[in-house]
From TrEMBL:
Keyword field: ATP-binding, Kinase, Magnesium, Nucleotide-binding, Rhamnose metabolism, Transferase
The species this protein was found in: Liquorilactobacillus cacaonum DSM 21116
Family: Belongs to the rhamnulokinase family. Belongs to the FGGY kinase family.
Residues of the Carbohydrate kinase FGGY C-terminal domain: 252-439
Gene Ontology biological process terms in this record: rhamnose catabolic process
Reactions that this protein is recorded to catalyse: L-rhamnulose + ATP = L-rhamnulose 1-phosphate + ADP + H(+)
Official protein name in the record: Rhamnulokinase
Pathway note: Carbohydrate degradation; L-rhamnose degradation; glycerone phosphate from L-rhamnose: step 2/3
Keyword Transferase: yes
Pfam assignment, any one: FGGY_C
Free-text function comment from the UniProt entry: Involved in the catabolism of L-rhamnose (6-deoxy-L-mannose). Catalyzes the transfer of the gamma-phosphate group from ATP to the 1-hydroxyl group of L-rhamnulose to yield L-rhamnulose 1-phosphate.
Record: residues binding ATP: 12-16, 258, 303, 402
Organism lineage: Bacteria, Bacillati, Bacillota, Bacilli, Lactobacillales
Top-level EC class as recorded in UniProt: transferase
Length: 489
């Protein structure tokens, strides 16, 4: 039997501690503690409560000790791009601002008057998203930046509070849009453009390195097990791709959570003209890989609808109600900026349909079906863009994350994209976090074996395309997206 491993996996809407063991080449996973996450408007900005997240981690670890575990290994992953400014004493200078805050809405335009978009893309290979760390730092309070000793990405900061050791892990650091693909270091021109220095970042480390032990002070105070922290692929999407079983010959992944991240795993970055035009990213992965992908708005839209319906319906209820409605009643550019953080998601979707003179979804089922069918169309259109850029045909899509539980969307996606869909595991992020720990500690040999173990340990459902059902729908949708007038700003 292996050591006992713990994944701390925190997304934008919830966090969890999962306990894992490897018994006879089967990975078992058990949820120990789950908690809510979300930003709140405070002191002029949408902010995360990182102290609260750390408290929840300590509560979860306390439960593990109570369950009889005296010693564990632990890894932390969270969403990307956001950071904590830390002073010389190791104290944080403010509550971290969320990437959904509207302070960066015009920052790409502003910053690229001095450094061209081409320069930034050739250097970094990272997609232009206005919330990338680069633009957040551009808008950061200059006085605070002057007092900043270290800029730490969120999971690195959590690791620092637990162990006292500070690093900058690269899978997450690449999402800053400041790492140079060629040199493997922060690019000085990019740093200069936002008034920060290399020395303000703790040293860069690869995924799969040992960070240190949770301090004895915390162990005693909270009655925790002895805990060794491994720096895993700390970006949740990086962990999710590691936790993807890689089924099919030429496979793509879709990490389906608050965001939908669709793309391929590459061994060399692809930052040519076409990738630039299509705004594809080359985020750094573990074990020398690149996550060539695009961000799509994802279940965030459904999460907001659910909230606005006063949480009367669960996600499963919404999927059941959607199933009773016909799909493709209207086309929606689900990636339009207006859906990033609207005051009211339902009103925004309805306004979009009205403005584009299409059927307005009204009931919970109609709303959910409108989102699911358009997400599946958006996925399909990205898969054909991926085919074009990569120069080969992707034949299967591995959907992982919470969204892989929505059979309706899995089937629609298989049908409109005409590829086989493998759905599951839904906990790929925690699994990816765990297997990097296991490889680091020698319980699994390498990522190939890890993926084999994953595919044999968890339920994975296959969906095959029902080709005859909607033969022209994808072409019609692509035409719709091309028509600027309908894209919705
Ligand atoms: C997914 C994710 C995406 C990143 C977005 C913002 O949880 O990490 O990969 O683009 O959140 O950090």
């Amino acid at each position: 039997m292996s050591k006992t491993y713990v994944a701390v996996d925190i997304g934008a809407s919830s966090g969890r501690l999962m306990l894992a063991e490897l018994v006879e080449k089967k990975l078992s996973l058990r949820e120990i503690h789950r908690f809510k996450n979300g930003f709140v408007h405070n002191k002029g900005h949408d902010r995360w409560d990182i102290d609260k997240l750390i408290e929840e981690i300590l509560i979860g670890l306390g439960k593990i000790k109570k369950a009889g575990y005296d010693s564990v290994v632990l890894g932390i992953d969270t969403w990307a791009v956001d950071y904590v400014l830390v002073d010389q004493k190791g104290d944080k200078l403010q509550d971290s601002i969320s990437y959904r805050d509207n302070r960066t809405h015009e920052s790409i335009e502003k910053l690229t008057t001095s450094l061209s978009k081409k320069y930034i893309y050739q250097k970094t290979g990272i997609q232009f998203l206005d919330f990338n760390t680069l633009y957040q730092l551009f808008e950061e309070d200059k006085e605070l930046l002057a007092k900043t000793d270290k800029i730490m990405m969120i999971p690195d900061y959590i690791g620092f509070i637990l162990t006292g050791k500070a690093v900058t892990e690269v899978t997450n650091a690449s999402t800053t849009q400041m790492l140079s693909l060629r040199e493997g270091l922060f690019d000085n021109n990019l740093l200069k453009s936002v008034n920060v220095r290399q020395s303000q970042f703790p040293k860069l480390v690869e995924a799969g390195t040992i960070l240190g032990n949770v301090s004895q002070k915390l162990v005693k105070k909270y009655n925790l097990p002895q805990t060794e922290v491994v720096t895993v692929a700390t970006h949740d999407t990086a962990s999710a791709v590691i936790g993807t079983p890689a089924l099919g010959q030429r496979w793509a992944y879709l990490s389906s959570g608050t965001w939908s991240l669709i793309g391929a795993e590459l061994n060399t970055p692809e930052n040519g003209e076409q990738a630039f035009e299509q705004n594809y990213t080359n985020e750094w992965g573990a074990y020398g890989t690149y996550r060539f992908l695009k961000n799509i708005m994802g279940l965030w839209i459904i999460q907001n609808i659910k909230k606005e319906l006063s949480n009367q319906y669960s996600f499963a209820d919404l999927a059941d109600l959607a199933k009773r409605e016909p799909p493709f009643q209207q086309f929606i550019d689900v990636n339009a900026a207006r859906f990033q953080n609207p005051e009211n998601m339902i009103a925004e979707l309805q306004a979009y349909c009205r403005e584009t003179k299409q059927k307005v979804p009204e009931t919970p089922g109609e709303l959910a079906m409108a989102v699911y069918s358009n997400l599946s169309l958006y996925y399909a259109s990205e898969l054909s863009i991926l085919d074009d850029i990569l120069g080969y045909h992707i034949d299967s899509l591995n959907i992982v994350g919470g969204g892989s539980n929505v059979d309706l969307m899995n089937q629609l996606t298989a049908t409109v994209s005409d590829v086989d869909v493998y759905a599951g595991p839904s906990e790929a992020t925690a699994i990816g976090n765990i297997v990097v720990q296991m490889i680091t500690k020698g319980d699994i040999l390498n990522i190939y074996l890890a993926r084999q173990i994953i595919s044999e340990s968890f339920e994975i459902n296959k969906f095959v395309p029902e080709r005859e059902k909607y033969p022209n729908i994808l072409d019609d949708y692509k035409k719709f997206l091309k028509n600027e007038k309908y894209r919705g700003g």
